[in-house]
Design brief:
Blueprint: H1 3-25, H2 30-37, H3 44-52, H4 57-63
Length: 72
Amino acid sequence: MSRTSSHSDAGLDAALPWRRSRLRRAGFDARLAAEIAADLRYDLGAIVALTDRGCPPRLAARIAAPLDERRP
């Protein structure tokens, strides 16, 4: 394992609880919040901004999903 990937894994480990908590506060159910929080390709700021404007969480996740991803 390279030093870079080890460093980024540690960063994800530190950020994961915060990302999950932020999504839960924005109205995401626990399962979807955990899935999105673990995937750094999602722009958390964009998803939260959408929900702050009244977009349902599941739709916000679909709108902000990485282009190579068709779910959730």
